[in-house]
């Protein structure tokens, strides 16, 4: 029996064959550990010389248990699920999903060597990564839809516009006009009509034109309540496509 004194715990293996060995307070045992993995030394402690043993509890060390990768997989996977479907941000969600999957696999490997410590976080992170990957498909589709809607609004295609009637009566001004679609595809339009008097714009109004076939002509009407002194001029000051996603025009 060893005469050495010391608190029970894990200490560097005095034989040098393993990373740590368990000291029960009186003698070395066959319980050993390497990189956090515990198992039994088949040789046993019988070959150890008397007197070997820790003499100070301050040098005690225990096998490390870490779950950093597993927790990273969980957090990154959750964030990816939240943003993967959002237009344009979808690409960050895709990168996050890949990272969460990798972290989850590494976390599972680490957990296998430390009695499953961190395994739930790793598995949940992998599940989040797979869900985020599916949501990325939705995000890409929504991104394409937003781009199409904005392009349709900003670029109404080639068009010929004209004012056919401009009038005022008491406090009401009104205008009528036409929009000719010069493009090869159908378009809908939002026409901005400006009313000017004395060289200054006194009112504006928006008029909608429903889908006009290629080579076709659509008509619009506009009106506004404003006091006009002197001559009235009506002009088309702007033309766009319909507001994106059916939003009301400004």
In total, how many beta strands?
10
Give me the number of helical elements: 3
Main beta sheet: strand number and arrangement?
4 strands, antiparallel
Rounded mean pLDDT score: 86
Morphology call: rod-shaped
Approximate helicity band: 25-40%
Blueprint (SSEs and pairs):
Layout: E1 9-12, E2 20-23, E3 28-34, E4 37-40, H1 68-83, H2 90-112, H3 119-154, E5 159-169, E6 172-181, E7 187-197, E8 200-212, E9 217-225, E10 233-240
Antiparallel strand pairs: 1-2, 2-3, 3-4, 5-6, 6-9, 7-8, 7-10
Helix pairs in contact: 1-2, 1-3, 2-3
Protein described:
By secondary structure, the protein is α+β, with helices and mostly antiparallel strands. It folds into 3 domains: 9-59, no CATH class; 68-154, no CATH class; 159-242, Immunoglobulin-like. It is built from 3 helices and 10 strands; from the N terminus they run E-E-E-E-H-H-H-E-E-E-E-E-E. A 4-stranded antiparallel β-sheet has the order 1-2-3-4, with no helix packed on it. Strand 2 and strand 3 (28-34) form a beta hairpin. The longest helix is centred in the middle third of the chain and has 36 residues, at 119-154. The radius of gyration is 38 Å and the shape is rod-shaped. The protein starts with 8 loop residues before the first strand and ends in a 10-residue tail after the last strand. Mean pLDDT is 86; it is low at 55-61.
């Amino acid at each position: 029996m060893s005469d050495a004194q010391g608190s029970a715990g894990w200490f560097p293996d005095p034989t040098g064959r393993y990373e740590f060995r368990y000291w029960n307070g009186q003698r070395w045992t066959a319980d050993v550990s390497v990189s956090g993995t515990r198992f039994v030394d088949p040789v046993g402690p019988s070959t150890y010389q008397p007197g070997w043993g820790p003499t100070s509890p301050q040098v005690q060390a225990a096998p490390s248990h870490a779950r950093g990768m597993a927790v990273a997989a969980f957090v990154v996977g959750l964030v990816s699920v939240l943003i993967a479907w959002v237009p344009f941000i979808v690409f960050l969600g895709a990168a996050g999903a890949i990272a969460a999957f990798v972290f989850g696999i590494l976390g599972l490997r680490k957990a296998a060597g430390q009695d499953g410590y961190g395994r739930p976080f790793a598995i949940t992170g992998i599940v989040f990564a797979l869900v985020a990957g599916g949501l990325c498909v939705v995000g890409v589709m929504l991104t394409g839809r937003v781009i199409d809607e904005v392009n349709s609004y900003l670029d109404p295609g080639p068009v010929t516009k004209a004012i056919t009637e401009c009038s005022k009566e008491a406090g009401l001004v009104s205008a009528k006009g036409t929009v000719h679609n010069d493009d090869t595809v159908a378009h809908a339009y939002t026409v901005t009509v400006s009313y000017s008097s004395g060289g200054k714009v006194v009112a504006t109004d928006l008029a909608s034109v429903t889908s006009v076939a290629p080579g076709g002509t659509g008509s619009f009407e506009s009106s506004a309540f404003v006091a006009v002194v002197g001559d009235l001029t009506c002009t088309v000051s702007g033309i766009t496509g319909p507001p994106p996603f059916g939003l009301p025009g400004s």
